[in-house]
Amino acid sequence: EPEVTQTPSHQVTQMGQEVILRCVPISNHLYFYWYRQILGQKVEFLVSFYNNEISEKSEIFDDQFSVERPDGSNFTLKIRSTKLEDSAMYFCASSEALNGQGRPEAFFGQGTRLTVV
Amino acid sequence: GENVEQHPSTLSVQEGDSAVIKCTYSDSASNYFPWYKQELGKRPQLIIDIRSNVGEKKDQRIAVTLNKTAKHFSLHITETQPEDSAVYFCAASVSGYSTLTFGKGTMLLVSP
Question: What is the torsion angle, in degrees rounded to the nearest 10, for the CA atoms of residue A54, residue A60, residue A66 and residue A72?
C-alpha cells in the first residue's frame, strides 16, 4: 500500500540552526500538508500546498518557515533559525484531488521528531 | 477559523464495553469529519470519516454520527479490545481538501 515517507525520523539541532525536513508524498496525490505535534498535545496545522504554491497557512507558519517542492517527488519544510519551542513531531500528509473529485482523506507520514537544544 | 472541541480527554473502559468520544465544531461550513487513531509514537491513521450529507456511518465495530444542526459528531466503538487503546483525534475540514482542524485528542484505555 502506498505510504507517505519522511526523513529523517529524528533530527537534533542546535538553536539558531537551519533544518530541512523531507517528505515524499503518495505519488498520485496533489495536496500536501505539514502538521506538527508538540509532545502530548494535539496535531496542529502548519501549511498546505497545491499546484506549486501555498494554499493555506496557520499563524504558526511564520517567516522562519518555508516549503518547497524541488522536484516531482519531494516536499520539504525548512525552518531557518530553529528555536527551542520548535521541538515537536512534524508530520507530512498528502491527499488526492482530481478536479475536486477523489477521496479527501489525508494520509500521514510517520513523522520527524525535531529536537532543538 | 474553525475550532474543534473534543471530550473526554481520557476514557477508561473494560474490554467488551462501548466507548463514545464526542466533538463539536464551530464553522458551519465544515463538511468533512475524519477520525484518526494514533498509537504511541506512531503516525495518525484514519479510521473512519463522514461527510456532512450523511448522518451516520458504520464500519464493523466503529461508527460515527453527525448532527449538523447542533454541530457535533461522535465516535462510537463497540466491543472494545485492548488493541483499541490509543489516542483518538477528531477533525473537521471545510472542503475535505483544505486544512484539518484537530481536536485535542482522547486517550482511550481498554483494560483486559
Answer: -50
Other CB atoms within 10 A of residue B39 CB: 12
From B89, B96, B101, residue closest to A104, measured CB to CB: B96
Q: What is the pLDDT of residue A55?
A: 87
Q: Number of CB pairs < 8 Å for A and B?
A: 52
- Chain A nearest-CA distance from B41, in A, is 9
CA distance A55 to B66: 28
Q: What angle do CA B39, A47, A12 make, to 5 degrees?
A: 60
pLDDT number for residue A99: 43
Residue A105 to residue B97, Cβ atoms within 8 A: no
Return d(Cα A83, Cα A87) in angstroms, integer: 8
